[in-house]
Amino acid sequence: MYETYVYDESILPLLYRMSNVEEIGLCLQVHDKETFIDGKHLKRNIINRMRRLNHFTFSISSFISTRNKLYLPSTKDIQCTFIDFPMNNIISYVDYFSEVHKGGQCHIYSYPHQMEYYGDITNNFPGGLFEYVRVVSLYDEYSFEHEFFVRIQKSFPFVEKLSLKNGKPQNAKQSYEANNDHRNVSVIQYSFLYQLSIVNVHDDYIEEFLFDTKTYLSNNVILFINYESLERVTHNFTRDVTRINCTKIDKLNLYGATKCSNSLEEYFPYAKIFYP
Fold it and tell me: Domain limits of the chain?
């Protein structure tokens, strides 16, 4: 995924210099746009300018500021711009964030998705099967429930690297605990995952991945995590329900700590411990 703040100044001119190209694939994160990149934009600024283009695949996320905006397009509005699009089946969805970014995100992509990366997935993710994707990032200002992670695993069965940012506690978890009923919580198996980043998250998501009643991790996983959060969730490295998955960590990258204790080393018996 290529990230740019100068899409109009760099990406479009580059494409125009390749006017004879017949096939192209774009995987972009575009920041500081006044409006979302949609079907009309692609037709006007790319397809109509590249006359020999006959195969166009893309995965584009565009980000706008919502400050002083009178009109904020919906997912339906964006999808309507692809009604007479000349190529492929196109999927789009829009998210608006009010707490941190004060902006909006629009993700448009051709389906079947042929890129290796799928970024900034939110609760509005429409699902599907993405067999080529190996790197996934998740972000939202609304909580990710366990069933969301079930959908993620089914949609990305070959994911190898997964990162997550979410500071909101899970709502359904509180209901399960109140009723003491975990029977309907399915265990998610990540068969190919070898790198997991859960640094900037609520403790509920650390439990989501480290509880063996919720997640089955393969061996030799590289874990990025905050030390204090890990200490809380593992009950100072004594908790049984997190012990099995912690023994599968091959490299432990601890943020917010300077040295490890004996109990930490015993709890992660096969891990090399680093302090980024």
Answer: 1-111, 116-276
